[in-house]
Amino acid sequence: MDGAGLPETRSTCPYCGVGCGVLLRADGNGGLDVRGDPDHPANFGRLCSKGSALGQTVGLEQRLLAPRIDGAEADWDAALDLVANTFKATIAEHGPDSVAFYVSGQLLTEDYYVANKLMKGFIGSANIDTNSRLCMASSVAGHKRAFGTDTVPGTYDDIDEADLVVLVGSNLAWCHPVLFQRLLAARQSRGTKIVVIDPRRTASCADADLHLPLAPGSDVALFNGLLAQIADRGAVDADYASHLNGLDDAIATARADDATITGLDPADLCAFYDLWIGTQRVVTIYSQGVNQSTSGTDKVNAILNCHLATGRIGTTGCGPFSVTGQPNAMGGREVGGLANMLACHLDLENADHRAAVRTFWGATAMPSRQGLKAVDMFRAVADGRIKALWIIHTNPAVSMPDADAVRDAIANCPFTVVSDITAQTDTARLADVLLPATAWAEKDGTVTNSDRTITRQRSVLPAPGRARPDWDILAEVGRRMGFARAFDYANPAEIFREHATLSGIAAGFGRDFDISALSGISDTDYAQFQPARWPVTQERQGGRFFADGAFFHPDGKARLIAVTAKALASVATADAPFVLNTGRLRDQWHTMTRTALSPRLSGHLPEPFVDIHPDDAQTLQIATADLVRLTNVHGQAILRARISKDVQKGQLFAPIHWTGETARCARIDALVAPATDPISGQPESKAGTVAAARFAAA
Ligand code: SF4
């Protein structure tokens, strides 16, 4: 059957946090035609290589189509009863903190909301964390320290309207390609200058006016140097300073820091400071290179300090901008999907906030303290404190730091449930119970992208086999655990209305996330909902935050945080002399569950590799295409060598994506130390240390 005559459906790309709108048309044979939505404010019709190949990833070859218990097919009733009864029995015997959910930025907001409500309102633990912990937790913590709430001040429009865009720890060209296309368009039309700050020469450098290959982890020193220069050159915005606390302390601390530890050429450093201070419209985009660090929160605040001191925030073409890795990392933040947050940007450790949520939910048990963040959660699985674990749409046996230890911990956990679209992940293979969930093109709900725009994701394909939506699976388990009324949802629109209503209560506590104008949205309007940037209230929709100098701390002011550069957690030694940088490729996504299904995407860089500087390759007698073994105390990986000056001497780069039994030796997170930022709990995935040696000649 030809699908050409069928209508197109508006939905959202399920990969990165740009959140591009897509138009989908079922082809009538189980496949999809996909094109960019010309009316979506994130992409205006553009798509990147991954988005445009979405139609190649919806086949059913690897799908999980029925529940499984201990590997054998089971019916839903048996599987759901087993999950609910085992969680109940575990809680009864060992207490609520003996169970945990590890969820994902792939979840839709409605799914996320139900998972968070079940754990924090009815199980009575805060042991729910998300793979977004590995992605943007440092940004959340930095925002809260500076602004009082986790608020992204600007919008994508600011990239179009900036005169200088600084990319810090962000290979925007490959990881957020449509935003990079918007940046290149701005460069073309208004001459926007581009500075890339990254130890590695990435694809984003090809169009940069300046590349600063700073020493790994030295971002705080770089931005402290900028803040000191802002002060020394009289570039502090004196009017805006009346809205700030901590300015003098931050400047004094910045002056005492030493920008030479960046290892940068002083002329380049000076050129950067001249450009930044001399350009009014500056957007500083940052991503994993900033966040994935044991001083990630301090790095974020070092950047925010510079924008606050100059008042370059919340106005056209200005602002710090954290871009999220996952499609719904922001939605997860909104529902309190992190172990230290409550729904709607309320604080778990604030008694008034807790009381309001308890009343609204009719909660039967609420924790009063934070739960286990991702790395600590899997430590607790390993040492037996967590005895029942539910993992939803993520693959921690590959993607967590110290991945071999995490894999062993999951294997030894007394009871592990995995909800996913496939049984073919390293994590799913370890599950006691496997629950088949609907996939991206079969799901209904909403996601929020990096600039706070909420967009509908709509189902265009039928759920295959016995797959069910995540919100439905979670609510069903909640009902079977005895919480029938609280989880009596008929559809995602009901959940969305509840979330929107709670956001109005949160706004009463001075929280930023407010979509209360949508609390009465009808099923029909929800079905037809068009992209909207929050806040969405009776008084305002969307726009920027903070141009007026009104922040969310109790005194209404922002806080500059005095931060000092710190050393990396892993120190190079004779046994592990190389700094290992990890990251994404243009055409793969996470552990390749979907993108590997596309022949076109898999053809870009078809096998795992490690980039090594020519001088190091010569010392180690490694030639192009040789197999190289990387080792450290955590694990090993065997990868194909690429000799490249894109990495600095003494540094290596390897992509994160490869997985599976046959490619076990390419699981790069097996080498990542589980060292975390003390504030955000985000691991330092960007700067471990390893030894390298030739394993086999090409
Ligand atoms: Fe999808 Fe991100 Fe590419 Fe847009 S930029 S099409 S959201 S992967």
TrEMBL record:
One of its GO terms (cellular component) is oxidoreductase complex. GO terms for biological process: cellular respiration; nitrate assimilation. One of its GO terms (molecular function) is 4 iron, 4 sulfur cluster binding. Keywords: 4Fe-4S, Iron, Iron-sulfur, Metal-binding, Molybdenum, Nitrate assimilation, Oxidoreductase. Residues 6-62 form the 4Fe-4S Mo/W bis-MGD-type domain. Its cofactor is [4Fe-4S] cluster; Mo-bis(molybdopterin guanine dinucleotide). It comes from the Bacteria. Belongs to the prokaryotic molybdopterin-containing oxidoreductase family. NasA/NapA/NarB subfamily. This is Assimilatory nitrate reductase (NADH) alpha subunit apoprotein. It comes from Yoonia rosea. The chain holds residues 1 to 698 of 876 of the full protein.
